[in-house]
Design goal:
306 residues; ten-stranded mixed β-sheet; globular
Length: 306
């Protein structure tokens, strides 16, 4: 058993993936890439340039949780670093991460400091989006009491972003892996909520810094991305707070976006996107990223049978 296994899932982001692996080269970790049926030669490029990296070339497209679950089951590290393909680091600080987790045996999930390519801090640790927290967020338009990724010392938080998330295998063995009913978004919140319910801790770890380049794969289709995000949020709230709590949390969060839509010209935001969020807070009517994957799987599956 190794100390640390790195799980990376890639979909048509060859350049970003190779840049990520370049910074991971030489680190003391088991690195596994699951290629989510890319069409840009990603899997072959990794095999050619990084023969030490294990590649799982998948012929169908699945969601975030399902893909990372596949890698988690195929690895044996005491800790699993769930990592986006659009991340890099000057120093991955694996030794410091393992040392910290070994010294804090009740920490089941840990998130490093995330920064944008220009060095600006990216918010990456938050309070759980309970109905109460969502309602308080409406009063401050999400500005106060929600973000927890501040400070220079490691500390306990509610949940950290899945773009760079270290998980303790023993804790996963206890509470289970990602819930695959979430196709994309909120699955890491759900997992960390379950971990916290089971008595485990989640920590923000600014002693390690990761650059998050934010892949444009789903950003190029904003309405589907927003639909998928809200479908996952509704699922999360219903799962953990019931139908009434889910409605309260959704409407309070949707109200925040309605306020942001009104202030969009001053804040230099896309008013249309804010309105899409407000609309989906009531009900998601259009297709999301799951349907996009299903369409691709159906098209490719039909072609292979000809």
């Amino acid at each position: 058993m190794t100390d640390l296994s790195v799980s990376i899932v890639n979909t048509n982001s060859r350049a970003l993936l190779l840049a990520c692996l370049e910074t991971l080269a030489g680190t003391a970790a088991e690195i596994v890439v699951l290629d989510n049926a890319s069409e840009d030669g990603s899997a072959d490029a990794v095999r050619e340039r990084f023969p030490e990296v294990r590649v799982l070339a998948q012929r169908h497209r699945a969601g975030f949780g399902a893909n990372h679950n596949t890698v988690i089951r195929e690895t044996n590290g005491r800790y699993v670093y769930v990592l986006n393909e659009d991340t890099t680091a000057d120093d991955w600080a694996f030794a410091r991460i393992v040392e910290y987790l070994d010294a804090h045996p009740r920490v089941a999930a840990l998130g490093p400091r995330l920064v944008y390519p220009d060095g600006r801090l990216q918010d990456s640790a938050w309070r759980f989006p309970t109905p109460l927290v969502s309602t308080l967020g409406l009063l401050t338009v999400g500005k106060l009491g929600v973000k927890q990724s501040r400070g220079e010392r490691p500390h306990a938080v509610d949940w950290v972003m899945g773009a760079a998330l270290v998980l303790r295998r023993d804790a996963l063995d206890e509470v289970g892996l990602f819930d695959e009913d979430f196709f994309l978004y909120s699955e890491e919140v759900d997992l960390q909520f379950r971990l916290r319910q089971a008595g485990w801790e989640v920590h923000y770890f600014p002693d390690a810094t990761v650059v998050h380049h934010e892949s444009q794969f789903s950003a190029e289709i904003p309405e589907r991305r927003i639909n998928e995000m809200w479908r996952s949020r509704h699922r999360y709230w219903r799962k953990h707070h019931g139908s009434f709590g889910a409605r309260v949390a959704a409407l309070a969060t949707g109200g925040q976006y309605a306020v942001r839509a009104a202030a969009a010209p001053l804040a230099r935001r896309s008013r249309r996107r804010m309105l899409l969020h407000a609309r989906d807070s009531w009900r998601v009517r259009g297709p999301g990223l799951r349907e996009l994957a299903d369409e691709w799987n159906g098209r490719v599956g039909a072609s292979s049978q000809r």
